[in-house]
Amino acid sequence: MSRKVTSIRGMNDILPAQTRLWQWLEARVAGVLQAYGYSEIRMPVLERTELFRRSIGEVTDIVEKEMYTFDDRGGDSVTLRPEGTAGCVRAAEEHGLLYNQTQRLWYRGPMFRYERPQAGRYRQFHQIGVETFGIASPDIDAELIILTARLWRELGLADQVTLELNSLGLAEDRARYRDALVSYLSEHQDRLDEDSRRRLERNPLRVLDSKDPGTREVLAGAPQLADYLGDEARSHFEGLRALLDAAGVKYVINQRLVRGLDYYGKTVFEWVTDALGAQGTVCAGGRYDGLVEQLGGKATPAVGFAMGVERLILLLEQRMPELAPEAELYIVSSDAGAALALAETLRDTLPGRRVLCHCGGGSFKSQMKKADRSGAWFALILGEDELASGLVTVKPLRQDGEQQQLPRATLATTLAAHLP
Ligand code: ATP
Ligand code: MG
């Protein structure tokens, strides 16, 4: 036998036993986004490397060590997208969607990061992301957060997640704060972990993110970003908080929340859970008013977020919502032609129902076993007798009740009345 080819580490197959939960989740998210008037946009998974370098920032984990970057056959440097915002901005700008109008967009799909694979962290993972353009006021920040809160209710996860909120201020606020932070941390260099010492020189705000106990002790006495916010950022943040309070959305202020991408300013937020160990952030986002201009467009305010689908799936698996079975009706027969014809008629008369027609022959007994395993509510039996009489035997598989013989003319209406 020849050697088998296996998948790449951190790149998962999503198997049929799991896709039903994925589809359930995706359908619910799509439903909520539709209810808020958001439109889907689909971008390519491959973009020019420059797009990510210029947006995410050179000195970030993603650009420094996580990107799948290679030269294509023409010699151009291309990158598998590590996130969706940059591509969404590029597409919206390229197609004139940002010209004199506002946009509420969403996308879904695989993202790629060369990280150490572990539970909730993969090299190919999926995000559902939302981006809005053209609105500078905090009402749109609030709308996005209210939307996510509704989503958790819809998914039955509301009691599993909490909202953390912070303001990063404007670029000039951050610059003043950065100076203060650097001079404070420099005095305590010897007590910082190695990663933080490196960040101190290249991207000091990220030190706030450190999980190292020694560094966290030092941070306890560090200057606070909140004290460096100017009037504009401060009133934006107060406006957002008032809107969230009015909407009854609970949050905690986390002064250490800085996010790993350079383009954020003003609002940043994360929905976190303690049910997933270290991979606790299920949804993260914020405002990025400077990015469109930074990528060559006209200055356009923007705010968005992305959620990690695998992490939400892990949470959902812990409470396993009731999913529709693979089949609702399973047709068992000794006559393939009659069975296929009955299945077609049922698909016409009971649209949306899952009708599985047994294929491949076999004894009545083995067909019934498969019917049972399919999860169907009813087996519909077309044996010799039924073919002669024109009736169909309906056998309940999931609930009590006698099997009955029904005329074909009323079969669909009777089934419709009894299907859950
Ligand atoms: P983390 O701190 O967990 O590395 P991040 O700040 O890098 O997350 P973002 O770039 O904000 O994450 O991406 C948004 C969401 O996408 C995250 O909150 C998470 O749910 C999910 N996510 C990010 N990286 C991965 C990954 N490698 N595998 C699975 N999900 C991921
Ligand atoms: Mg990360």
Automatic annotation (TrEMBL):
<dbReference type="Pfam" id="PF03129">
    <property type="entry name" value="HGTP_anticodon"/>
</dbReference>
<keyword id="KW-0030">Aminoacyl-tRNA synthetase</keyword>
<dbReference type="InterPro" id="IPR004516">
    <property type="entry name" value="HisRS/HisZ"/>
</dbReference>
<dbReference type="InterPro" id="IPR006195">
    <property type="entry name" value="aa-tRNA-synth_II"/>
</dbReference>
<dbReference type="Pfam" id="PF13393">
    <property type="entry name" value="tRNA-synt_His"/>
</dbReference>
<keyword id="KW-0963">Cytoplasm</keyword>
<keyword id="KW-0436">Ligase</keyword>
<keyword id="KW-0547">Nucleotide-binding</keyword>
<keyword id="KW-0648">Protein biosynthesis</keyword>
<keyword id="KW-0067">ATP-binding</keyword>
<dbReference type="InterPro" id="IPR033656">
    <property type="entry name" value="HisRS_anticodon"/>
</dbReference>
<dbReference type="GO" id="GO:0004821">
    <property type="term" value="F:histidine-tRNA ligase activity"/>
</dbReference>
<comment type="subunit">
    <text>Homodimer.</text>
</comment>
<dbReference type="InterPro" id="IPR036621">
    <property type="entry name" value="Anticodon-bd_dom_sf"/>
</dbReference>
<dbReference type="InterPro" id="IPR041715">
    <property type="entry name" value="HisRS-like_core"/>
</dbReference>
<dbReference type="InterPro" id="IPR015807">
    <property type="entry name" value="His-tRNA-ligase"/>
</dbReference>
<feature type="domain" description="Aminoacyl-transfer RNA synthetases class-II family profile">
    <location>
        <begin position="1"/>
        <end position="325"/>
    </location>
</feature>
<protein>
    <recommendedName>
        <fullName>Histidine--tRNA ligase</fullName>
        <ecNumber>6.1.1.21</ecNumber>
    </recommendedName>
</protein>
<comment type="similarity">
    <text>Belongs to the class-II aminoacyl-tRNA synthetase family.</text>
</comment>
<dbReference type="InterPro" id="IPR004154">
    <property type="entry name" value="Anticodon-bd"/>
</dbReference>
<dbReference type="InterPro" id="IPR045864">
    <property type="entry name" value="aa-tRNA-synth_II/BPL/LPL"/>
</dbReference>
